[in-house]
Amino acid sequence: MRHYSFLRVLFLASIAAAGALAVAAQTAEPSPEFQSIFVGQLVNEPYTNTTGPFGFRVHAPVSGGNLTDATTNEVVATLLPTTDTGIITEEVLLFPLWVLPYIWKEDGRLASMTVKGVGNTTTDTYCYVHVETDSPTYSWMNRNFFIMKIVATADPLLHVFTMYGISNL
Fold first, then answer.
1. Which of 60, 66, 117, 132 has the smallest number of Cβ neighbours within 10 A?
2. Does 39 fall in a domain?
């Protein structure tokens, strides 16, 4: 009987120790700090819609735009014309899904920025941005996390944005 009591105490002690480790492992990491990296605009053309089960899909031609260094205000890339999509619900929620092709001024190399998020057609939209580029100058972007805050205007038809990167990696 004593042996059983000892095993029971040992078992309960191991559960308590594992619980303490689990609590320690769940301590929150420091919050990421973001800094503005780029600002820019997308020049849109009139678009067509396809009705769907969640509202409608926007087929929006983008005729141009730029990417400007947020610190120096120097234009660092030019957007190639493209057409991309997103979904707008009946509640005016916007779910953009864009692939934006840029050419870097520095070296003429290409960048592909995949932008996906959620927002509102009348206020702000927030997106995650995944960057792929073969530019030696901007290759650091391939392995970083970016968010974009986008504000749309109706006249002229523009999307003005700020792109943020994590500054405390």
1. 132
2. yes
